[in-house]
Amino acid sequence: MRRHFAAALLGLAASCAQAQFARAEDAVKYRQGTLFVLSQHFTRIGAMVNGRVPYDARAAAENAEIVAVLAKLPGAGFGPGTEHGSRGAKPEIWTEQARFKEQNERFIAEATRLAAAAKTHNLDQLKAAYAATAATCKACHDAYRNN
Ligand code: ASC
Known about the structure:
The protein has one domain: Cytochrome c/b562 (Four Helix Bundle (Hemerythrin (Met), subunit A)). The protein is about 70% helix and about 0% strand. The protein is built from six helices and no strands. The chain has helices spanning about 1-15, 25-50, 55-70, 90-95, 95-120, 125-145. The longest helix is centred in the first third of the chain and has 26 residues, at about 25-50. The radius of gyration is 16 Å and the shape is elongated. The structure holds ascorbic acid (ASC).
């Protein structure tokens, strides 16, 4: 049952990532919305990793699985013509497309590793994968987000 759900989610993620948006405004909402939901689930893992809430291996694995799927989504919302929709996104996203995409791919790869690490139910592995993933969040924010 869970496996079917995960497979359906993955299929959905793959097709959404190729979605074209009716309006630039929709692309902006899409990237902001997916990044927001992503941060909610990532932060729940961070709370366990940092000892703010007790480690719950199952909850960590469920959140990490969601993070790994959602990580694939926001990139599609940064297409051509969506440069002027938000204050937070720096113009370099569109002038350094190759570098931006490469960072995005690195994040997706680390989020995938995070989900695998969470499944081991080993807190040290989770901590290491969380730190590696957070570093890719930060690298992209430092380069491409106005704070
Ligand atoms: C989070 C979150 C981010 C990243 C970033 C990592 O929990 O919401 O955007 O981690 O702060 O540096």
